[in-house]
Amino acid sequence: MNIPNRITISRILLIPIFILLLTLPLDWGNVSIGKDTLPIVHLVSALLFIVASGTDWVDGFYARKYNLVTNLGKFLDPMADKLLVAAAFVLLVELNMAPAWLVIVILSREFAVTGLRLVAAGEGLVLAAGQMGKWKTAFQLVSIAFLLLHDFPFSYLDLSVSIGTILLYIALILTVVSGLDYFIKNWHVMKESK
């Protein structure tokens, strides 16, 4: 197994640790940030999430630079991304940090696009992610990190709305628009499938 695939597997292995940190009744105290407090367990979870998210860039860079792109990597990498993001969003709902309806919309789009990619794969086609989809992913990851960090470092500002929440709604808009764009551009796959 090559190094990029090992990095991807390490991302998958970090997901259960991330889940346990946010679901076990751990009380490691709080850190004061502006007028709010940040539970240390949220800080540690956010840092773990950022590290796990960063491995996506590292494995992709390494695979392209050294021509180590494999079918296993093509399967594992997007799966690892979806598992990490889905776990984080579900946990944010459980922690009352994100509305359930919004997370349902985001996850529904991910399932729909994955389904379209499976249909295309059955026809021998590979559907690449578009630029808007990459922006969508970036905003999803950044919004999750800011929500877990309780908006740190912007928590010191006296804002009436959460930066993480603003980023989350931008991610929602990009998720819906990029999903529609993806289906419009690739609808021929559904029409032509046998």
From TrEMBL:
This protein's name: CDP-diacylglycerol--glycerol-3-phosphate 3-phosphatidyltransferase
TM segments?
A: 12-28, 40-62, 83-105, 163-184
Entry GO CC: plasma membrane
* NCBIfam families xref list: pgsA
Q: Does the keyword Membrane apply?
A: yes
What InterPro entries would the database entry show?
Answer: CDP-alcohol_PTase-I, CDP-OH_P_trans, CDP-OH_PTrfase_TM_dom, CDP_ALCOHOL_P_TRANSF_CS, Phosphatidylglycerol_P_synth
Q: Which GO terms describe its molecular function?
A: CDP-diacylglycerol-glycerol-3-phosphate 3-phosphatidyltransferase activity
Q: Catalytic activity annotated for this protein? A: a CDP-1,2-diacyl-sn-glycerol + sn-glycerol 3-phosphate = a 1,2-diacyl-sn-glycero-3-phospho-(1'-sn-glycero-3'-phosphate) + CMP + H(+)
Q: How does it sit in the membrane?
A: Multi-pass membrane protein
Instruction: Specify the pathway.
Output: Lipid metabolism; Phospholipid metabolism; phosphatidylglycerol biosynthesis; phosphatidylglycerol from CDP-diacylglycerol: step 1/2
